[in-house]
Amino acid sequence: MITYVLVDGENIDGVLGGILNRRPGPEDRPRWDKIIRFAKDWCHDEVRALFFINATNGDIPWPFIQALRNAEFRPILINGPDKVVDDAITRTLETLKNREGNVLLLSHDADFRGALEGLHEGEHATRRVGVLGFIEHMSHEYGELDWVEKLDLEYDAQAFLGNVVLPRMKVLSINDFHPEDFLGSIDPTVPYSNQIFLINRNLNGGLGEPNSVGSSEEGSGGNSDHNITSLEVEHSSPAIEDEQSFHHIESHIY
Known about the structure:
- The protein has helices spanning 9-20, 32-43, 62-70, 84-96, 113-118, 140-143, 180-183, 200-204, 216-219, 238-241, and strands at 2-8, 46-54, 73-78, 102-106, 129-133, 148-152, 195-196, 211-212.
- The chain has 254 residues and is α/β, with parallel strands linked by helices.
- The chain has 2 domains: 2-163 and 224-241, Rossmann fold, CATH 3.40.50.1010; 168-212, no CATH class.
- It starts with a strand and ends in a 13-residue tail after the last helix.
């Protein structure tokens, strides 16, 4: 059986930028070779991975595209009006209704709900369907599909380098709320900073470490060890590591 991986690159980049409170750089982004490995482990299948890129404005990030190919992705450059990437992914999901295989979608966008529902009907009702991203930013409509697996890009796929965690926020269960995490030091001489309680309290089974976002430097969360596109796969080269980014992506509404 085959696992089909579909990546909404604009959406992933836009949500990551919202978490960082700035435009992501190459050092901030996921390592796509790790996502391929995660997809292979998820269902123990052959993986066919498509990465959709909006090429309407003609600004094509060729080094990034080469790095994706090295990481076993097939880049799909789409030209057209409006939400052209969403349209292409929706059409691909519709086509997959008539194919066997599991589906892993990287996006947070509610626009794909209808197409996902069609994947789990009739003779394909036992296939695995997953949505991979930052769980707290996924559309609530995915939560209404109890057969869709909600998977975390940082914690489940471990798609970032090093032990650095992103400065993420979540809704805490009252059982996980500890006032001391938010009140700061009892010593008034210790500066108080605006702290985010990280999502890793439940996921790691331990206490999360607060991460200051009081300034733009602090807001980076120390993500200098993250990398989207240097990838460090066997076939990458220094030329691929320098200029890979979504130059045209500013934000994404989902």
